[in-house]
Amino acid sequence: MLSNRFCDEYVIDMTDLQCERPSTEPRVSDHIDKIKDMITQIINNGYAYEVDGDVYYAVDKFPSYGMLSGQRLEHNRAGERVAVDSRKHHPADFALWKAAKPGEPSWDSPWGPGRPGWHIECSAMSACYLTHKFDIHGGGIDLIFPHHENEIAQSWAADTESNVSYWMHNGHVTNNNEKMSKSLGNFFTIRQITERYHPLALRHFLISAHYRSPLNYSVSQLESSSDAIYYIFQTLQDCKDALSSFVQGSTENNANVPQVNQAAKDCIKKLHVEFQTKMSDDLQTPVILTGALQEALKFVNSSLMMLKKKMQKRAQLQLIQSLLEVEKEVGKVLDVLGLLSTKSYAEVLQEFKDKALKRAGLAEDEVLHLIEERAQARKSKDFPKSDKIRNDLTAKGISLMDVGNETFWRPCIPSEPQVIQTADQRALTVEEKESKPQVNQKVEEILVDQEGNGPHTST
Question: What's the predicted TM-score (pTM) here?
Answer without folding.
Answer: 0.87
